[in-house]
Design goal:
The protein is an all-alpha fold. It has one domain: Serine Threonine Protein Phosphatase 5, Tetratricopeptide repeat (Alpha Horseshoe), CATH 1.25.40. The chain is built from 6 helices and no strands. The chain is globular, with a radius of gyration of 14 Å.
Length: about 100
């Protein structure tokens, strides 16, 4: 049976929940290979990357999530956190300013 992007996403979520972030990233990447226009796949992969300290990769993925779904405030907040970890305080402030409260 052929796996869909949704299957890979579900497996990635389960692996993230269990703390297996490296394999979760692989699953999200497989899902993105099948459907690169699903914003939550970038968001999920970015979250796993943050857990591993890959803040540059996380910023890239959150940026893609925002490109596909600019109304998602949480992606801005999380990207701001990743930018702060990289020392990009101006970028973090700009992302935080996207909040609508």
């Amino acid at each position: 049976m052929m796996m869909t992007w949704m299957d890979y996403n579900r497996i990635g979520l389960a692996r993230s929940e269990s703390g297996d972030y490296e394999r979760a990233i692989d699953d999200y990447t497989q899902a993105l290979n099948l459907n690169p226009e699903v914003w939550c796949l970038y968001y999920n992969r970015a979250s796993a990357r943050c857990r591993l300290g890959d803040y540059e990769g996380a910023v890239d993925d959150y940026t893609q999530a925002i490109r596909l779904n600019p109304e998602d405030e949480i992606s801005y907040i999380r990207r701001g956190y990743a930018r702060m970890q990289l020392g990009d305080y101006e970028g973090a402030i700009n992302d935080n300013a996207q909040r609508r409260y």
